[in-house]
Design goal:
Layout: H1 12-43, H2 46-73, H3 76-100, H4 105-129, H5 139-168, H6 170-190, H7 205-214, H8 216-232, H9 234-237, H10 239-245, H11 249-276, H12 281-301, H13 305-333, H14 339-368, H15 370-390, H16 409-414
Length: 415
């Protein structure tokens, strides 16, 4: 059994926080689905429903760099707990209103904005805290598992939220979301304090961002993530259009997203093994971009649901490689006193392109069709992957955090 369960999950503190994080991310989708449904019923306006996504993600774009500053200045556990309590208040307040009467669109919007702000303020601290719950040798595995949990919850959450809405109603969905935040608060409290570096060890924000944009590894990691999320996130955001093209209906949409989630699980298992056997991340990340583009392109032209499911599963494998690999490499490359601010920039590189890319590709799809739109995105990703493979940044494999280096540095420097 010990060989089956990843070593990081055998560490109780990490396991508790990891499970609570998955629950919290899934709970957020209970609210997203229920809130979207209520807004549609009240307004009969798809644009009003779309505004929910802007309210949920907008704070992450605005607050990302400040959230990174908080993570480097204060106890990361306290920052994460505070952010979870803010999200619980937003979801819980909406649950109370929905239990008493039909909430107005304004109330739903305010709750969504509060939850989004809480998420934005806490995510760099939480991401930086997660690896401190395991021994140093399990750092990479803990980050990979955390990325898997978040992405699987993101893929499975909408389906669970839909079932919850049908069975229990909107008020219960909002209450479930609030409860999952409190569960994560409990798990984080048990983890004990996670103080930030001493004041004399903290560089100024100007120095931090000068390091980010001056360091070739951090610069490539952030640029690569922004390009990837801007183009690749359409595989999820525009999945309903793919299901419609295949005449697969809502059930087919669920299967497509589920296949990607299964691929992500397999991808996390494979990532640890290929990196531990000597494949440097400076090669693994562009290779994953290129292989993802193959699955993405196959999805665009899939003649039926079976091929589309295989394409989504393959894409899921390399989707998780990009997120887990980039997150791990960035944390290992960042000096410990800068981790929070680097993760704030990472959050910005993830969220801002997701808010723009699918919208642009969706508008293009209305003109040329969903297949051509996704093929264009896949082609651009392939070009970026090939260029990155031909122009690797070997400093990605040199670890600055806590002054230690990875096992593949010698191999990379000789290559």
């Amino acid at each position: 059994m010990g060989r089956v369960v990843p070593a990081a999950l055998r560490v109780p503190l990490f396991r508790h926080v990891w499970l609570a994080t998955i629950g919290s991310n899934a709970g957020t989708w209970f609210q997203n689905v229920a809130a979207g449904w209520l807004v549609l019923v009240i307004t009969d306006s798809p644009a009003a429903v779309g505004a929910l996504a802007l309210l949920a993600r907008g704070p992450a774009v605005v607050l990302a760099t400040y959230a990174g500053h908080l993570a480097d200045r204060f106890d990361r556990r306290d920052v994460a707990i505070g952010s979870m309590l803010l999200q619980a208040a937003g979801a819980g307040g909406l649950a109370v209103v929905a239990a008493v009467t039909e909430p107005s669109v304004a109330v739903i919007y305010i709750s969504t904005l509060v939850v989004g702000a809480g998420f934005a303020l806490g995510i760099p601290a939480l991401l930086a805290l997660i690896p401190t719950l395991v021994p140093k040798e399990l750092f990479s595995q803990s980050v990979s598992l955390n990325a898997v949990g978040i992405n699987v919850a993101r893929l499975a959450g909408p389906a669970l939220g839909g079932v919850g809405l049908v069975l229990f109603g909107a008020a219960v969905c909002f209450a479930i979301n609030a409860a999952t935040f409190l569960l994560l608060v409990w798990a984080l409290w048990r983890a004990g304090p996670r103080p930030a570096p001493a004041a004399h060890e903290r560089p100024s924000s100007r120095e931090a961002y000068r390091f980010a944009f001056g360091d070739p590894a951090i610069r490539r990691l952030l640029l690569g993530m922004a390009i990837f999320t801007g183009l690749a996130s359409s595989i999820q955001e525009l999945a309903p259009a793919v299901a419609d093209r295949l005449d697969a209906g809502a059930e087919g949409l669920g299967f497509l997203l589920g296949a990607m989630g299964g691929g992500a699980l397999l991808g996390a298992f494979l990532l640890e093994r290929v990196v531990s056997r000597g494949l440097p991340r400076s090669r693994a990340l562009p290779l994953a971009t290129l292989l993802f583009s193959v699955g993405f392109g196959l999805l665009a032209v899939a003649p039926g649901l079976g091929v589309a499911l295989a394409a989504m599963a393959a894409a899921g494998v390399f989707w998780i490689w990009l997120f887990a690999g980039t997150n791990t490499a960035l944390q290992l490359r960042s000096p410990k006193e800068l981790v929070g601010r680097m993760l704030g920039l990472y959050q910005l590189a993830v969220v801002a392109p997701i808010a723009i890319g699918p919208v642009a590709l969706g508008l293009l799809a209305e003109e040329v069709g969903i297949s051509w739109s996704l093929l264009l995105a896949a082609g651009l990703l392939a070009l970026w992957g090939v260029w990155s493979l031909l122009n690797p940044v070997r400093e990605i494999d040199v670890h600055l955090r806590e002054g230690h280096a990875g096992p593949d540095i010698g191999r990379v420097s000789r290559g």
